[in-house]
TrEMBL record:
UniProt lineage: Eukaryota, Viridiplantae, Streptophyta, Embryophyta, Tracheophyta
Organism: Zea mays (Maize)
Molecular function as annotated in GO: magnesium ion transmembrane transporter activity
Family listed: Belongs to the NIPA (TC 2.A.7) family.
Name of this protein: Probable magnesium transporter
Gene Ontology, cellular component aspect: early endosome; plasma membrane
């Protein structure tokens, strides 16, 4: 019971820290660095679960570190935000509204037309819903993080209706993501679901952040990001003997 409590507390602290990161750093930087969790997982599995980390696994971890450092050094700058209303103005500009409309429409098509027929046979269906809505979740979490940071620093943002609108978006998207992610994990192998979800979610989040916050030097950043993506695919493919055709295709493209 004590161990379970410690684990739950660890998860809660980790999620709070992840939420706080979006208040102080751009989403385009925070989200890709989630690849560092692969290194921690590999090290803990080697030390605690006695799952031997082979040479390819170690090399994959090194590549993840190199990719993460590259992202930190070359991540584009975002504009300074002084109010949650500024984030709302960015979110309601035509470019991002168009992106959000495409995301919502695509998610609805998947949920109502594709899931009933192909959800149990095609892994990309459930993961597609989670990844699409996840990009909107991150943008809203970023707005909430900024609102709370400004509130704690003395500029109350809680009386703005935009703050609560972002909170509703987060609650709606997160509940839907959890539902379909659980379905994906129940239906398909976790070793297949997790990496595909990470790659799709991160890619869409970067695209959403670029559109919403008008990030410059996009090409340079994406080249660094796909360096990190290649590192993770290499780790999963070689260290874990992962043979998913999707990642074979990605590695061939890269």
């Amino acid at each position: 019971m004590c161990s379970l409590t410690c684990l739950l507390c660890t998860v809660i602290v980790g999620e709070i820290a992840n939420f706080a990161a979006y208040a102080f750093a751009p989403a385009i930087l925070v989200t890709p660095l989630g690849a560092l969790s692969i290194i921690i997982s590999a090290a803990l599995a080697h030390a605690i679960l006695q799952e031997k980390l082979h040479t390819f696994g170690i090399l994959g971890c090194v590549l993840c570190v190199v990719g993460s450092i590259t992202i930190v050094l070359h991540a584009p700058q975002e504009r300074d935000i002084d109010s949650v209303k500024e984030v709302w103005d960015l979110a309601t500009e035509p470019a991002f509204l168009c992106y959000a409309a495409i995301v919502v429409a695509s998610a609805l098509v998947l949920i109502y037309f594709v899931v009933p027929h192909h959800g149990q046979t095609n892994i990309m269906v459930y993961i597609g819903v989670c990844s699409l809505l996840g990009s909107l979740t991150v943008m809203s979490v970023r707005a909430l993080g900024i609102a709370l940071k400004l509130t704690f620093s003395g500029t109350n943002q809680l009386f703005y209706p935009q703050t609560w609108a972002f909170a509703v978006i987060v609650a709606t998207c997160v509940s839907t993501q959890i539902n379909y992610l659980n379905k994906a994990l129940d239906t398909f192998n976790t070793a297949v679901v997790s990496p595909i979800y990470y790659v799709m979610f991160t890619s869409l989040t970067i695209i959403a952040s670029v559109i919403m916050f008008k990030v410059t030097h996009f090409i340079t950043f994406m080249s660094n990001y796909y360096h990190l993506l290649l590192s993770e695919c290499f780790l999963l493919k070689k260290a874990k003997k992962f043979t998913c055709l999707v990642f074979d295709y990605i590695l061939d493209l890269i």
